[in-house]
Amino acid sequence: MYALDxxxxxxxxxxxxxRLESAxxxxxxxxxxxxxxxxxxxxxxxxxxxxxxxxTVRVARHPARPQTADYIDMMCRDFxxxxxxxxxxxxxxxxxxxxxxxPFKVMLVGHQKGRTTAxxxxxxxxxxNPEGYRKALLKMRMAEKFKMxxxxxxxxxxxxxxxxxxxxGQAEAIAVNLRxxxxxxxxxxxxxxxxxxxxxxxxxxxxxxVAMMQYAWYSVISxxxxxxxxxxxxxxxxxxxxxxALALTADRNLTNGLIDSVITEPAGGAHRDPRAAASAMQHWxxxxxxxxxxxxxxxxxxxxxxxxxxxxxxxxRQLA
Amino acid sequence: MAERAAERTWDQVETLAPKKAVPEGLWTQxxxxxxxxFRKALEQNLHVCMKCDHxxxxxxxxxxxxxxxxxxxxxxxxxMSPMDPLSFVDMxxxxxxxxxxxxxxGENDGVQTGAGFIKGRxxxxxxxxxxFLAGSMGSVVGEKVTRAIxxxxxxxxxxxxxxxxxxxxxxxxxxxxxxxxxxxAALARLDDAGGLFISVLTDPTTGGVTxxxxxxxxxxxxxPHALIGFAGPRVIRQTIRQELPEGxxxxxxxxxxxxxxxxxxxxxxxxxxxxxxxxxxT
Lengths: 320, 282
Ligand SMILES: [Zn+2]
Fold this sequence. Notes:
The complex is a heterodimer of chains A (320) and B (282).
Chain A: H1 8-22, H2 30-49, H3 53-60, H4 68-75, E1 77-82, E2 94-101, E3 104-111, H5 117-122, H6 130-145, E4 150-156, H7 163-167, H8 170-181, E5 188-197, H9 198-202, E6 209-213, E7 217-219, H10 223-230, H11 236-245, H12 250-255, E8 261-263, H13 274-292, H14 297-309, E9 317-319
Parallel strand pairs in A: 3-4, 4-5, 5-6, 5-7, 6-8
Antiparallel strand pairs in A: 1-2, 2-3
Chain B: E1 3-5, E2 10-12, E3 27-29, E4 36-38, H1 39-44, H2 60-67, E5 74-75, E6 80-82, H3 94-105, E7 111-118, E8 121-128, H4 139-155, E9 159-165, H5 173-192, E10 197-205, H6 207-210, E11 219-222, H7 233-240, H8 251-257, E12 262-263, H9 269-280
Parallel strand pairs in B: 8-9, 9-10, 10-11, 11-12
Antiparallel strand pairs in B: 2-6, 3-4, 5-7, 7-8
Helix pairs in contact in B: 4-5
Zinc ion (ZN) binds at residues 30, 32-33, 35, 49, 51-52, 54 of chain B.
């Protein structure tokens, strides 16, 4: 199992628990087991209550952390994937499709990083190409036409930096999404479920309500990218400093007014209990859509505009 | 849900940053061909090398001067100056970087915006300034560009943005990122109102600026041989671990790929822009 260094003490206790549980005399060791489990829970809570921003980034990248496809499995009914941008191809790094979440029919759009090595390579570890962003917009426009709300799940280190992606207009694809999402006449909610890397994240996150999962990160650049440029070298020390300086955690983004909500994750992060994470997320989505679907499209689009218009620009206060 | 304060991340300063007082020599060298050029003559030639036609980087102030009819520029929000919303410190505090850039350039931040005329046609113009922290887009650049677009929308005047930027301003992190959404959303409103946006790409235009307003022009033109891209060449080289093709991410590459309308020599920018304005009827 993949282990984060700061989780190691917890994993060590869990190994003991496992050994006890499989011991022939397990039934007689109930007290010891209970004590160990309590110690584990306390340690886990303590560890996660004091994560540094850089540790948070590493939780956000945990290979067992649920991805868009997992959330679709756990949260959506009737999922019907839709492929392709009808211009160039079908980018597996962004999944789009029709789905039911709670009482709502929605268009679901989300970055996919991939689970198996083969899938990770074909998804370029969640780094979408222009055709991914264009596919997202095409499906979001369909949602607008049929008055379906849009739910986007953000999980990308950034849009893919390659020769072909530049040739096919990576910048243009993202820019057009920013402009068009700002005026789509249907509710949009976005959740940063893992990594929210720069324009590649924002390219599907111009939403009426934006949430971050508790241990996700969202920033203009990755800590390593920032460290490499501003500290001239990316290493454990400079990455730690950059992650703190960038204010990339859910809490900091909320305080800075750049997101609307933080969705609490199960103790020890979403990878320890994906179902609990999915259930918390579903609850938030349904709650937001209940409010947003009541608004007429003019009000919806105006409020969305005003929200982004105010970022870094006015001293006015507004209700989240 | 918690009440939140949308933070103002810029400040109004009373006076402009002090003008720089560095004396310049009579001669300067072309960074491309190495030719020694008489500075006065180079200025008259719009900072385009007389020998090899290289379009040199110029400041936003020089750009505005070149582009607009003489004496017509009325600056907007000239006293807007960056704050430091995250109290960002890397090897040097962001505050110090701002102060240093202000001393060196005599500007408050990396963009000039205002109203003026091009060959007698009323326009709103924004020019990004590479000499100020590499033309990076922080809250001030985003806010001033947005206000320029909004002014153009409200007064039914064409807006011209001359981009010249290394991308996001890392020291403003999320605030910098959201300027991409803000400027693009303002352009949606301009578009809804039927306004004309001419985007002029100059060397270099990369990152968050390219992936927002720079690529959203009704007409997108570029100066010859400018570096234009989403990711920087260094990042791409590191990612794909191979050499980049000759001429990759140049204006000519983008024209061939279908992402810009025209490549325009600096000497013809005024007349080409006038022509677009006339065709659009705005
Ligand atoms: Zn030359």
